[in-house]
């Protein structure tokens, strides 16, 4: 599947999910409003029934216009024509609310018009048939008319009751959210697999390019050795034999690097622990790299100030780590690579900084630079050889020594790799 096809699929799926989420939000909001209005209406009807019961009980035939007034979303004031006994009102409220399945916690208050004050207040938990002395939320203040009798009812948990009636919408929204998360996960997997596929293809292309040159050289040298007159020129014979041996060694080295990474992936790192002088390894690596690039004006400056510089580790693997870093710095440093290597002590660690004057690495690629087979894209240009294995190997070995590696780099301003290895500590396999 091409990258454009993946982008189209992701775009269409995103548009569909945005539409689904928007529709779900619309319907959930409408359902909430409808449920809220329905509960309010049922509460008002229950309170009107309470008023009618009070009038019937007292023989009052007066018609009250809109006796129930909603002061706020969860607070109601009810007008009556006589004084009430608190327990009688409590019984009526509980009965009428339960008749309409309004099993909500509420607080009722009774207003006395003769002394212009609330003479009784109580909180009832209808569902549990319990009474509570305190509630989490207090009812709002009310301007009582001093020429009548009133009682008020306050529902502190009304919002929770609205949501409790919306189980279907809450469940459907949760399912939609799960599907959305799963969709995002699938898209992430697809993009990751696509990226891995591209990295694999780049690795195959790089390997083909790396192996093609020595194979071609060996083939040409073999053809020369098969010529009949080659025995008459021993120097030429020896030269081509040396070329074959050199290119064969080059092939062996490339294959060994791939096999080495395969062993690392299988957790088959066999660290031979012994006392290692970091400065000695850095000096050996610097000498080796300078000899490997005779065609370049390579300069490696060593500033080794760590004291002590001894750690417990595997000298062969650590030497390979430093060789890889210096080799990369030399390859990407142009015709005149300027490399500086510094060592210092930092809170129980030997810190080694390898800085170059190369092209630098962009921020978007720095997180991937230590991944296996990853190389900075250069199209079909293969001016710098490699499989994208070196930095992955470096990171794996450093972490196997309980250390860490960091990268500081800016485009066109070079790169600096900083390794921190603990000293005075043993390695636990």
SSE order and pairing:
Elements: H1 3-58, E1 68-72, E2 75-80, H2 86-99, E3 105-112, E4 117-125, E5 130-132, E6 149-154, H3 158-164, H4 167-226, H5 234-265, E7 274-277, H6 278-292, E8 299-304, E9 310-313, H7 315-331, E10 338-346, E11 349-355, H8 363-366, H9 390-400, E12 404-409, E13 415-422
Parallel strand pairs: 8-10
Antiparallel strand pairs: 1-2, 2-6, 3-4, 3-6, 4-5, 7-9, 10-11, 11-13, 12-13
Helix pairs in contact: 1-2, 1-4, 4-5, 6-7, 7-9
Rounded mean pLDDT score: 79
Distance from N terminus to C terminus (CA atoms, Å) equals 42 Å
Any idea what the shape is?
A: elongated
- What is the number of E strands? 13
In short:
With 429 residues, the chain is of the alpha+beta class. The chain has helices at 3-58, 86-99, 158-164, 167-226, 234-265, 278-292, 315-331, 363-366, 390-400, and strands spanning 68-72, 75-80, 105-112, 117-125, 130-132, 149-154, 274-277, 299-304, 310-313, 338-346, 349-355, 404-409, 415-422.
What does this structure look like?
This protein is of the alpha+beta class and about 425 residues long. Helix content is about 50%, strand content about 20%. It has 9 helices and 13 strands. It has helices spanning about 5-60, 85-100, 160-165, 165-225, 235-265, 280-290, 315-330, 365, 390-400; strands at about 70, 75-80, 105-110, 115-125, 130, 150-155, 275, 300-305, 310-315, 340-345, 350-355, 405-410, 415-420. The strands form 3 sheets. It has a 6-stranded antiparallel sheet with strand order 1-2-6-3-4-5, with helices on one face. Strands 8-10-11-13-12 form a 5-stranded mixed sheet, covered by helices on one side. A hairpin with a 2-residue loop joins strand 1 and strand 2 (about 75-80). Helix 1 (about 5-60) packs across helix 2 (about 85-100), helix 4 (about 165-225) packs antiparallel against helix 5 (about 235-265) and helix 7 (about 315-330) runs antiparallel to helix 9 (about 390-400). The chain is elongated.
């Amino acid at each position: 599947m091409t990258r454009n096809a993946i982008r189209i699929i992701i775009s269409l799926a995103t548009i569909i999910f945005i539409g689904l989420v928007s529709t779900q939000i619309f319907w959930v909001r409408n359902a909430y409003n409808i449920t809220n209005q329905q509960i309010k209406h049922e509460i008002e009807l229950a309170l009107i029934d309470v008023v009618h019961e009070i009038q019937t009980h007292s023989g009052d035939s007066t018609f009250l216009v809109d006796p129930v007034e909603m002061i706020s979303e969860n607070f109601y004031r009810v007008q009556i024509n006589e004084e009430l006994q608190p327990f009688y009102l409590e019984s009526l409220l509980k009965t009428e609310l339960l008749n309409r399945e309004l099993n909500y916690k509420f607080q009722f208050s009774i207003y006395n018009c003769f002394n212009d004050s609330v003479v009784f207040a109580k909180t009832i938990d209808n569902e549990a048939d319990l009474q509570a002395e305190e509630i989490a939320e207090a009812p709002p203040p009310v301007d009582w008319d001093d020429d009548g009798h009133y009682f008020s009812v306050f529902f502190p948990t009304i919002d929770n009751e609205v949501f409790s009636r919306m189980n279907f919408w809450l469940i459907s929204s949760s399912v939609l959210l799960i599907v959305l998360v799963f969709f995002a996960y699938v898209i992430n997997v697809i993009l990751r697999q696509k990226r891995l596929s591209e990295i694999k293809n780049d690795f195959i292309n790089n390997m083909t390019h790396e192996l093609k040159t020595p194979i071609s050289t060996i083939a040409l040298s073999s053809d020369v050795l098969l010529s009949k007159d080659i025995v008459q020129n021993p120097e030429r014979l020896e030269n081509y034999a040396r070329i074959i041996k050199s290119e064969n060694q080059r092939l062996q080295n490339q294959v060994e690097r791939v096999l080495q990474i395969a062993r690392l992936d299988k957790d088959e790192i066999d660290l031979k622990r012994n006392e290692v002088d970091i400065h000695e390894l850095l000096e050996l690596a610097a000498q080796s790299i300078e000899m490997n690039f005779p065609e370049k004006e390579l300069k490696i400056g060593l500033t080794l100030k760590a004291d002590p510089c001894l750690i417990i580790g595997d000298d062969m693997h650590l030497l390979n780590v430093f060789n890889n870093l210096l080799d990369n710095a030399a390859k990407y440093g142009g015709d005149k690579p300027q490399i500086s290597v510094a060592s210092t002590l930092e809170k129980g660690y030997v810190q080694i900084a390898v800085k170059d004057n190369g092209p630098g690495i962009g921020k978007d690629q720095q997180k991937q630079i230590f991944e296996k087979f990853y190389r900075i894209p250069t199209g079909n240009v293969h001016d710098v050889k490699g499989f994208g294995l070196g930095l992955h190997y470096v990171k794996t070995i450093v972490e196997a020594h309980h250390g860490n590696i960091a990268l500081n780099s800016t485009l066109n301003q070079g790169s600096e790799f900083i390794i921190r290895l603990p000293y005075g500590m043993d390695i636990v396999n």
